[in-house]
Amino acid sequence: MQTLLFGTGLGLFLVGLITGFAVSALRNPRMGLTSHLEALLNGSSSS
């Protein structure tokens, strides 16, 4: 169970890093920034 939680947190953290590159290309950059920060914060807290 602990390994699954760690893997999920790591995956969410990596998705957050990837979305950080796409923030400026989105139609609504503020919403992209919000999703980027949420993925980073939630991914790092569950790892």
SS content category: mainly alpha
List the helices and strands in order.
Answer: HH
Helix fraction?
over 70%
- The whole-angstrom Rg is 12 Å
Q: Gap between N and C termini, in Å?
A: 12 Å
Shape: elongated
| Overall structural domain count | 1
In this structure, how is the largest beta sheet organized? none
Overall pLDDT metric = 86
Number of helices: 2
Uncertain spans, ≥5 residues at pLDDT below 50? none
Structural features, described:
The chain has about 45 residues and is an all-alpha fold. The chain has one domain (about 1-45). It is built from two helices and no strands. α1 packs antiparallel against α2 (about 30-45). It starts with a helix and ends with a helix. The model has no long low-confidence stretch (mean pLDDT about 85).
Jot down its keywords.
0% strand, mainly alpha, single chain, 47 residues
Indicate the topology:
Blueprint: H1 2-22, H2 29-46
Helix pairs in contact: 1-2
In short:
With 47 residues, the chain is an all-alpha fold. Helices cover 83% and strands 0% of the residues.
